[in-house]
Amino acid sequence: MAGETAAFTAVVALLITAVASQTPPTAYTNHTVGGPAGWFFNATNNISTTNYSSWAASQTFNLGDFLIFRTNSNQTVIQTYNFTTFKSCSSDDASDNDTIHYYGGDSDFNKPLIIPVPLTIKGPNYFFSDVNDGVQCERGMAFEIQVNTGLGLPPSLNQPPPPPYATPPDSDSTQTPPLTIPQTKGNGGFKSVANLRRDFFFMAVMALLLLC
Ligand SMILES: *[C@@H]1O[C@H](CO)[C@@H](O)[C@H](O)[C@H]1NC(C)=O
Ligand SMILES: *[C@@H]1O[C@H](CO)[C@@H](O)[C@H](O)[C@H]1NC(C)=O
Ligand SMILES: *[C@@H]1O[C@H](CO)[C@@H](O)[C@H](O)[C@H]1NC(C)=O
Ligand SMILES: *[C@@H]1O[C@H](CO)[C@@H](O)[C@H](O)[C@H]1NC(C)=O
Ligand SMILES: *[C@@H]1O[C@H](CO)[C@@H](O)[C@H](O)[C@H]1NC(C)=O
Ligand SMILES: *[C@@H]1O[C@H](CO)[C@@H](O)[C@H](O)[C@H]1NC(C)=O
Ligand SMILES: *[C@@H]1O[C@H](CO)[C@@H](O)[C@H](O)[C@H]1NC(C)=O
What is the distance between the alpha carbons of residues 205 and 46, in angstroms, rounded to a whole number? Predict the structure, then answer.
């Protein structure tokens, strides 16, 4: 009996493990780039604060996840889908359709920044800092990730642009010609039937006068 129970427990444990390892992700993940080190270049020893390729290799990235760059204005964040741009460590010749500048850099050093970057395209995504004519990028501020499908894009990142805003039709626009009716306080913009009759009478008189 004891042996059977132990075997049964082992089988159940194996099944749970097998199921767990095949379970697709159930939530979107925010990945803090570089972990506690953040996204920084160490100007003193002329190299990135941590090895971002090693960091990226330790993570699994899915559509709808965010990369969170905890950094300051001494670095930039360039995202590209173009390997040539990535390898060149420069976005000077990059096209807007495959390269995104999240932070263009300014003369204001040491300004703390948190830059969230949503992962919206499957496959290889490349990131680098283009500061200092590419030296930061050449010296470790660059990494590549593979974005998997995971749960797919959440609606918040996958919505077509809303249709252009159109003013809702007036409640009486079906009966009257499209006149501009001034909104009056009290009746919420709705004209009373008496007012409409009066307006119609007024317009008819005007039309008659014009014809004469
Ligand atoms: C991930 O980051 C995004 C962008 O900053 C934020 O909207 C979202 O709430 C974060 N999600 C989690 C689980 O922290
Ligand atoms: C830069 O690297 C040097 C030498 O490893 C270290 O002493 C210093 O604390 C680092 N600076 C920052 C800002 O991480
Ligand atoms: C940093 O390294 C680059 C080579 O990648 C070199 O051109 C540059 O002079 C170095 N800067 C410093 C401050 O050592
Ligand atoms: C960073 O780590 C990768 C392995 O993940 C290694 O190939 C590479 O040489 C490392 N870079 C530096 C500058 O140490
Ligand atoms: C940012 O850049 C300025 C100017 O090069 C430098 O003085 C400062 O130490 C840098 N800060 C960090 C955290 O690297
Ligand atoms: C990639 O970017 C380079 C410039 O960095 C450009 O010449 C090339 O046409 C781009 N490739 C694609 C497939 O758009
Ligand atoms: C971006 O534009 C270039 C031409 O400028 C084109 O060759 C390339 O296919 C485009 N890439 C995307 C992702 O639309």
Answer: 86
Q: Cα of 52 to ligand 4 centre, how many Å?
A: 8
Phi, psi of 44 (to 5 degrees): -65, -50
pLDDT tens digit string along 115-155? Answer: 999 999 999 999 999 999 999 999 999 999 999 999 999 99
What's the chain's average pLDDT? Answer: 78
Q: Which two tokens stand for residue 10?
A: 């082992």
Of 67, 68, 79, 64, nearest to 156 by C-alpha is 64
85 lines ligand 6 (CB under 6 A): yes
Does the pLDDT value for residue 76 go beyond 60? yes
pLDDT recorded at residue 178 = 42
Tell me, in angstroms, the distance from the centre of ligand 5 to residue 111's CA. 10
| Spatial CA neighbour of 39 closest among 79, 76, 2, 3 | 76
The answer for residues whose C-beta is within 8 angstroms of residue 30's C-beta and 6 or more apart is: 65, 66, 67, 68, 116
- Whether ligand 2 lies within 6 angstroms of the CB of 46 is answered as no
